[in-house]
Amino acid sequence: xxxxxxxxxxxxxxxxxxxxxxxxxxxxxxxxxxxxxxxxxxxxxxxxxxxxxxxxxxxxxxxxxxxxxxxxxxxxxxxxxxxxxxxxxxxxxxxxxxxxxxxxxxxxxxxxxxxxxxxxxxxxxxxxxxxxxxxxxxxxx
Length: 141
Hints:
By secondary structure, this protein is mainly α. It has helices spanning 2-11, 14-48, 81-113, 126-140, and strands at residues 59-62, 65-66, 72-74, 77-79. It has a single domain (2-102), classed as Large-conductance mechanosensitive channel, MscL, domain 1 (Non-ribosomal Peptide Synthetase Peptidyl Carrier Protein, Chain A), CATH 1.10.1200. It contains 4 helices and 4 strands. The strands form 2 sheets. The chain has a two-stranded antiparallel sheet with strand order 1-4. A two-stranded antiparallel ribbon has the order 2-3. The longest helix is centred in the first third of the chain and has 35 residues, at 14-48. The model has no long low-confidence stretch (mean pLDDT 83).
């Protein structure tokens, strides 16, 4: 029973809940960025490079083997470097977007934390001025 109560206290702390929300939103954001890269950014780049579809780029190490009946007896072995390029571009875009978001949050935090200028000290009262004069006169004697 103690283990359950400790787990409940751990799971309900603000940091854990915030982290869970961040992970869920981050996963959704990652899917959006992957779609933007795969469906919007990479096709024009592939077109500029001669109509290449990046996901089709690969180095075939061993071709697929098909018997006389048309049955595949062994699968092809290939290095899919096009997928690697696309995933790398996904990562760079996500990392840049997160960097910009954190930079914006930090600049907002700095604006909030900036201390207000302290007002100038109030002018001395008549009593303080009189006491200062008396002190100076006594010092000079």
